[in-house]
Backbone:
């Protein structure tokens, strides 16, 4: 809770600085009524407040990230920590228990070795808290004092404040680039480590997937890391079964909503469709696993397929298709709406019926946009996780039978990262390699689709 | 003009046109059916969840009559007001007392099926109302989960007769269980609750909002109002559009590789979960924010500039307040998406068994959707119902948030 208190402290000091600087500006005005201030008094206030709050907040963020490890270090330097196990889980557990008691999260320790460490932890934590508060105060005071001494009647406080605000705005928009870069670099870094253990050819083109998280890290068997069954499962569920459901239903829904439905109906039907898009994927997954998958299995058994499994690609794909319908529908809706009214009027004036107009004129004209929408829908479907985790299963089968269990890239990412393997194990690192492939494919689909949409819009403007 | 004008409506023409009109009707019907199909699936999903979920809010309870004065349990109001009142009642032997009276009112066999945590419920009722100590009262306490499944008609056959007999005597009932909203995760479906997961979700959403909203709004203002047209701006725009479409699980990988490397001691804490979800929500807010800012007419900016406002003042005094309803709508929709997100939380370790509600942003927590996922893995019939009940709670929250967004849109949206 300490960082939150420090943040409140910084904000309080900022408020004090704001009031003091504004009062100072008023006093300038009173002292020399005929000299115009360069800025409004509140601008002076903002100038000092920003100088107090920004350095203090930066310090608190840095401090919050290093303080826990400083606490641990000072506890380890304590003589009571001398007889701890040197490495491994046991050491971490003992330290964790002692920390929990010292912070009040727990009442007692299970491990007798943790007991002598409670007091050092308590001391170290209170010492670090004191240092944190003192340093925050000093930094805020220095920033405030320096900016306060610069206040003069002719000081252009507003320009300064606006320059700082501009920098904050720029910084906020750079977060997006940093995130993209962070995703890219972290995936590349771990993927390179993975390819140091397993060669890329056997990963990308192998047909057997079955990493053994318990095998030794050095002797990983590359023939167990063939990702083709995962890629096939992903494409089969996300790009084939789901799209067979979503494309016709989504397109027909969009056509009905835009061309046929009366405004009243549209007002009710469209939000209903949007609710379908707002249901969390874990709910769809539960629905697929609890209701759809058993129904499909029973149906398969009743038509004579006795070995149908309770987890099937078909169940996951069907539910995923339903989830994607609103997405396809809204993309198709946009594209059809972008076709100029004159084309529609022309076709109708020649005597074509509405459906002839739609099939022969509107849909062909809107086709690039619809195709782009389908690409975005595929990219969303192959990145979808919870439905396939709960309904498609973990078995990596390379098969075309929709009634069998299949696994996908996202399922295996979850399986590898929530499993038992250590962080350096190739099984764990394979999750990042799979994530990297997924990232590149969805990125490619999105970039191509957005470009198509842009060109399509320009064609009719 | 003796030759008659060829009649337009020849039989062949009539037949053709009938065919075309029939095709038109079929097409229209296909459109209507495809929409109704989606709505039917939605309705089926909601009805399935509701029918399972209603009994998830209930639990099987045994009626135990306890004579408190006879039992010797005393409750000093001063002691009962303290936080460790449950421990003091335990020290007075309350568990044994509950067990004794259970044997008296239910028989030995029935008393064995009392939930091991049943005395805690009695203790909580005593703390809530110490006056019950002065007399006899019938307490409803949870049954063991084996008896609970026997009550629902499955589970061990050996317990079925006992369940039937107690049910006939009215001592075994399925009652609404308000504690479901107040307890946390447990291994026994009779004792689980969602408050822990709900609180974890709320703390996480607070962090998400605190980071994603300011950053998203400021980035949207910069891109829409100040950004020069150059390569950097293009790169920012492209990366925001792509981030909005990156699968959520990739953000989980980012959180795992970056945040958990920087803050290893905050594993499965709402702080890390919130930051990860904030990165995911931010692009949504930026895109919604830019649309809202774009909708503010240029005349507002020109008017303010003409009266001598600086570019910053134009934006913060005029454009932002006018665009705020639109931005808020987008923010709420983005937050609703983040609230339902499961995959990134699984990646950063928020899937642990957490039996106490988190008491801060840095203590281990789980999220409501993750709790649903964890319960859905359990085979026990009791957990199936509890999962559906948790889904109902989650859907309620989403409904409220989306309703709020729609209200904001209708109430404050201006057509210029």
Residues:
């Amino acid at each position: 809770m300490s960082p939150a208190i420090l943040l409140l402290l910084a904000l309080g000091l900022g408020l004090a600085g704001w009031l003091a600087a504004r009062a100072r500006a008023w006093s300038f005005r009173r002292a020399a009524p005929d000299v115009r201030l360069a800025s409004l008094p509140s601008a002076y206030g903002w100038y000092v407040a920003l100088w107090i709050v920004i350095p203090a907040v930066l310090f608190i963020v840095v401090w919050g990230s290093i303080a826990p490890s400083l606490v641990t270090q000072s506890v380890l330097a304590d003589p009571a920590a001398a007889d701890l196990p040197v490495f491994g889980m046991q050491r971490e557990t003992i330290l964790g228990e002692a920390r929990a008691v010292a912070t009040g999260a727990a009442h007692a320790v299970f491990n007798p070795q943790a007991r002598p460490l409670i007091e050092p932890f308590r001391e170290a934590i209170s010492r670090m808290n004191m240092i944190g508060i003192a340093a925050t105060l000093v930094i805020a005071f220095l920033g405030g004092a320096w900016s306060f001494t610069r206040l003069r009647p002719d000081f252009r406080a507003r320009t300064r404040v606006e320059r700082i605000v501009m920098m904050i705005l720029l910084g906020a928009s750079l977060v997006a680039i940093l995130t993209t870069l962070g995703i890219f670099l972290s995936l590349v870094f771990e993927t390179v480590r993975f390819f140091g253990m397993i060669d890329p050819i056997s990963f990308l083109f192998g047909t057997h997937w079955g990493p053994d998280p318990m095998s030794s890290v050095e002797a990983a068997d590359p023939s167990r890391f063939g990702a083709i069954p995962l890629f096939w499962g992903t494409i089969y569920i996300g790009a084939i079964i789901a799209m067979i459901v979503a494309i016709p239903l989504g397109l027909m829904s969009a056509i009905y909503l835009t061309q046929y439905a009366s405004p009243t109906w549209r007002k009710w039907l469209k939000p209903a469709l949007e609710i379908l898009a707002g249901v969390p994927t874990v709910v769809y997954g539960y629905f697929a696993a609890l209701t759809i998958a058993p129904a499909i299995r029973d149906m398969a058994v009743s038509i004579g397929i006795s070995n149908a499994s309770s987890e099937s690609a078909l169940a996951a794909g069907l539910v995923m298709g339903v989830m994607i319908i609103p997405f396809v529908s809204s993309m198709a809706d946009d594209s059809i709406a972008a076709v100029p009214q004159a084309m529609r009027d022309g076709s109708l004036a020649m005597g074509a019926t509405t459906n002839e107009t739609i099939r022969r004129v509107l849909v062909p004209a809107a086709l690039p946009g619809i195709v782009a929408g389908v690409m975005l829908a595929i990219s969303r479907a192959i990145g979808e996780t919870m439905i396939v985790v709960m309904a498609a299963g973990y078995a990596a089968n390379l098969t075309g039978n929709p009634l069998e269990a299949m696994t996908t890239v996202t399922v295996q990412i979850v399986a590898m990262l929530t499993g038992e393997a250590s962080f350096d194990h190739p099984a764990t690192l394979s999750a990042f390699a799979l994530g990297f492939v997924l990232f590149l494919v969805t990125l490619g689909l999105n970039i191509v689709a957005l470009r198509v949409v842009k060109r399509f819009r320009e064609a009719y403007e | 003009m003796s030759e008659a004008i060829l009649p337009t409506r020849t039989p062949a023409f009539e037949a053709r046109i009938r065919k075309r009109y029939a095709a038109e009707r079929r097409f229209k019907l296909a459109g209507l059916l495809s929409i109704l199909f989606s709505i039917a699936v939605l309705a089926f999903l909601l009805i399935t969840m509701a029918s399972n979920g209603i009994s998830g809010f209930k639990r099987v309870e045994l009626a135990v009559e306890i004579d408190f004065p006879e039992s010797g349990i005393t409750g000093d109001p001063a002691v009962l007001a303290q936080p460790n009142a449950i421990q003091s009642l335990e020290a007075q032997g309350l568990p044994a007392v509950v067990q004794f009276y259970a044997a008296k009112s239910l028989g030995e066999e029935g008393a064995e099926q009392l939930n091991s945590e049943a005395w805690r419920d009695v203790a909580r009722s005593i703390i809530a109302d110490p006056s019950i100590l002065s007399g006899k009262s019938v307490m409803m306490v949870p049954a063991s989960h084996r008896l609970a499944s026997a009550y629902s008609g499955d589970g061990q056959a050996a317990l079925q007769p006992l369940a039937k007999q107690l049910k006939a005597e009215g001592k075994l009932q399925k009652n609404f269980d308000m504690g479901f909203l107040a307890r946390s995760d447990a291994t026994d479906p009779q004792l689980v609750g969602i408050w822990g997961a709900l609180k974890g979700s709320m703390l996480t959403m607070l962090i998400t909002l605190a980071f994603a909203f300011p950053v998203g709004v400021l980035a949207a203002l910069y891109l829409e109002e100040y950004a020069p047209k150059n390569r950097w701006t293009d790169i920012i725009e492209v990366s925001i559009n792509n981030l909005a479409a990156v699968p959520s699980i990739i953000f989980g990988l980012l959180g795992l590789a970056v945040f958990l490397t920087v803050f290893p001691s905050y594993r499965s804490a709402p702080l890390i979960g919130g930051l990860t979800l904030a990165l995911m929500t931010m692009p949504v807010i930026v895109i919604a924010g830019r649309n809202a800012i774009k909708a503010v007419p240029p005349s507002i900016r020109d008017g303010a500039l003409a009266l001598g406002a600086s570019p910053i003042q134009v934006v913060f005094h005029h454009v932002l307040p006018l665009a705020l309803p639109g931005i808020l709508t987008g923010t709420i929709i983005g937050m609703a998406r983040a609230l339902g997100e499961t995959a990134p939380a699984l990646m950063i370790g928020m899937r642990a068994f957490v039996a106490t509600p988190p008491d801060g942003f840095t203590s281990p927590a789980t999220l409501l959707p993750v709790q649903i996922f964890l319960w859905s893995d359990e085979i026990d019939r009791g957990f199936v119902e509890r999962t559906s009940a948790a889904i109902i709670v989650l859907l309620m929250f989403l409904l409220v948030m989306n309703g709020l967004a729609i209200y904001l849109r209708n109430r404050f949206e201006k057509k210029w």
